[in-house]
Queue: 4 jobs
Job 1
Amino acid sequence: LPSPFTTEDLQAGYAYDLAFRQFEVSDTRVFDQPQAGRAFFEGIIRDHLDIGRPDQVVLIFDRKLTPRTPGRFRTKVVTRGVNPQLSCTYKSCRLKQYFKLGVALRTELVINDTRDFGIGRRVCAMNWTALRAVGDSANQRLCDAEAQTAQPAPDVVTLTHVTRPSTTTDGLHAPALAFGDPRVMALLASLVRFSHVLVGFTNRDLAGLVASLLDQPYSSRQATYDLRRLRRKALIRRLPHSQRYQLTPFGRRTAVLFTKAHGRVLAPGLALLDTLVPDDVAKRSPLANAWRQLDLALDDFMDHQLRAA
């Protein structure tokens, strides 16, 4: 690069150095079956619109944009020529992911301020290596978190261990995380946010998220108690030399399973089975129709048995 100083400036002792304005680390994973890869990524976005949602889910239009193109281009309607993008932010950094060219899962961490991670801005081998390590680690953790939610659900014994009081290997009491309890469900839904993948979460972070989902006061003391029982159930771990926590692989699978089952199966299912649901609404639901037919069949059977007796 040409020097910005004149010969006189250099002779006077002035000097300059390069600094990182922006640093990007990317990870590209090509699928041998692109259709399966596309379905996998769109499934991730669909699942996390209501479970551990990222800070943003936007759609990129397949069109040419120039500096003169006005406005921001986002939509909620998926159609031809539109590619979904998942985005999480931490301070001034951004972690984004999209399906590139229809064949590869592309994950990118864009670091706009190296000091967000305690790394200097000067361009040198040490800072370069440190930034590369941060980027590789963040990209890998996001991919690992997505892969964990795609694994089989925990078995019955494991679910019993989570939902019932238990004892750790050190002999410590681990209070139950009761499925269906509003506080527990809000707690688990708060844990699976993709934004926690970068640097974990604190007591304060958790308290704010749970309070917003519960729509009622949730104190730091309550968060401390919940963090303790989450650790003793092996759902989270404390990051070394910090007050931050991260989900374990087992914790993410369990939290996603509980949140999905409650939000997508139990709550809407019970709503459809309510006898106060209007007939015109119930008729449009296979579940409501099947349940009402079963209910009538049981009534007929019991009536017949009572008469026979």
Job 2
Amino acid sequence: MAKVFEDVFMEIQADMISLGLDYVESQAEKVFIYVSYEESALTFNVFYQIKGKIVTISKVNEVLENKKIFNKKEVFSILDAGIQELDRLIDTCEAYGRPIPTEIRLTYDVRANSLKSDYQYEPGYINTKDLDSSDIFMEWVEAEKNK
């Protein structure tokens, strides 16, 4: 039986969450995934809530109980794998004739086993002179820190 669009779309999102969660060996309370696709520019990034603190992937050792040996190669590997998942998502949208989101924000609450997702379909930064996807990502990180 062929999979329906929603099933494939959710599977890809779950794979994105797994990439982030696996990196911190399931020590996070929440995993936040940011994905952007504007004019062929692909972005995947992740940050966490660990012990009540919001941290980016490069700062997880500041709060992890079981420290990781920070390895840039491993971090880039995760981010690259996220881009591959985004490529898969784009291909899926095209195959099913669905619009491709320009931005996806996923928030996975580990304790509640719940996923909150927010999709945008309009350009977020490509039409501005002073913003790029990393600015939008960091704005979200800061917004979560200030909650």
Job 3
Amino acid sequence: MHVLANGPPDVNGYAVRTHALLHAQLESEKISAIGLTSPWYPERESLVTDYNFEGVNYIRTIHPAHLSGKLSIAMRWVSWRGMKKIANMNSKSENRQNKTLLNRIVGTMKYVTRRLLLPFTTFTRPFFSWIEERILFKHFTERIIEVATSSNVDIIHAHVPYRVGIPARKAARKLGIPFVYEMRGMWEESAVASGRWRAGGIAYRRFRRLETKVMKDADALICISETLRNEAISRGINSEKISVVPNAVEQKKSEFEESEIYDEVKEKIGNSAVIGYIGSLRELEGVDRTAEAASKLINRGINVKLFVLSSEPGQSELLTHCKKLGIAEHAIITGPVPHNQVAPFYDLIDVFVVSRPDKRVTRLVTPLKPFEAMQAGCAIVMSDLPALAEIVNDGLTGRLYPPDDVEALADTIEQLLLDVDERTSLGIAASEWIVENRTWSKVVNETPEIYHRLIQDSGR
């Protein structure tokens, strides 16, 4: 049983890897895999009811805010906090859609109130969050035990963060079954990269300490990259219990659904060369640097368009950045589209760019997004970071450039746009490498061996 922070029908990177892994395990006919999601996201209606996708069952641990019936005092308090969070999320959404003068005044008053209460809430918020965490730990642990027992589970495979790992570990120990933990990201480093936390701050140190404890307590640790494996070893984890199950893609399908916006995008591109990116627009993705490189190429007189397909968060900020650069008329920023309609858009891209900045998290964590582009035969250009260098063999399956060097990025893209033969050979080599090394059916082969070894060692 996989114990998860979230999962389908959500379409974030965490959920995409989750489903690909579980679906590939089921398809292998060696493992009967189910997923159990956490109660940590009361605002996500998608995680309230059980869900079946492509034969994979996702069972829910419902947050108290969505539970009816008699609840303990502690659970009622957590329910109240959850409903407050939901109300705040809805209020923010309404304000974004309806920016009236009254809404702006109310928003300003709320901001001033928060600032005035800051000296008090600086101390109370962490304390109340800690109490809420303890209560939800207990609720989640009980649910894991309940589902694992009713489903005759042989092994518990939990995925980051520690808020999933700690309850899963407790449940596994109580049931007397092996516990596997999967390190697929570094949430504390992502928080630092986005500016929410300070490196070395109290929240950062606590998160890191608890993550390390779960890794040490696990019977086996799975990492998604060699960089994360090395990070785990540096924290004192026994290297013999670490396995690498990297990110991958599904085997290429012969037919795809075509999005209703495909023809519109194709028409806007016209006969221009295309610099493209498909994925989220979080700050750590560095797509603003791709826009800056596109601006330099346009100023050099190259007929090029910037095409970005993403979910809505971050789109307006990127478009504003393009306007400041003077390339808004050369930018096509659109989406979202369902994942099963994404594939045809790769055929519109001449050079796919992953311009992640040089941060600790980007040096350690491999993204999913380059794999589909490589599978589609795109020529790919990426920042020369350790995690990304695991994916691309520079000059053979793609090109690497010094991170944060926009001039070098623009030069690398220009070279590929002017050299059709190199662009084609890089795309072909990348696609062949994916087929040979990075399909889910191949990378999950190691997981049955890990599970069986642990089950034998446990004497079950």
Job 4
Amino acid sequence: MIDRSACRGKGLDVVPLSDTEMRVIATLRDTSVALDDPEDVELIHDLRLEATITVPDLVIREVSGHAEHQPYDQCALTVAPLAKLRGLSLQRGYRRQVMELLGGTQGCSHFLTLALELSAANVLSIYLRMRAQVRNTPENRADGTWARAGLQVEPGLMNACLALAANSPVQRRALDGTSTDGD
């Protein structure tokens, strides 16, 4: 019987450097713990991908990988291919390009996971730019102020998901300022 559990922890931090750049740090840490002894922890992977990304076009200007712990000596060779991400935009088509550049034996599946995770920086950067304009409060969400700021920052938020569909109560409030209870 298997006598250990495994856990993957991932993180993504987005830190503005200026109005036109942000620093994105993606982390991945895999561990295994003995079921009968929570103090018996084995580190499997501990990786970090750092990128400087331009705003609002979301182009990767600088990128570096850091392996604090990988299981094999050959894994060290997987850091260099990350430089291929430089110049890519996190917008449409990014995931496909990353798979082509780093997938399979061209890299490390764990660094690939982190490179794909960078695309979430788009959503977080939109939030930060919205938050610079208006506070994210229940009142501002209810009266449409928050969604209106979102559309100003990123018009592509229209129809981005169910809640932001063009005919949704959220978008109606954003566009005409009317409040609708219960959504």
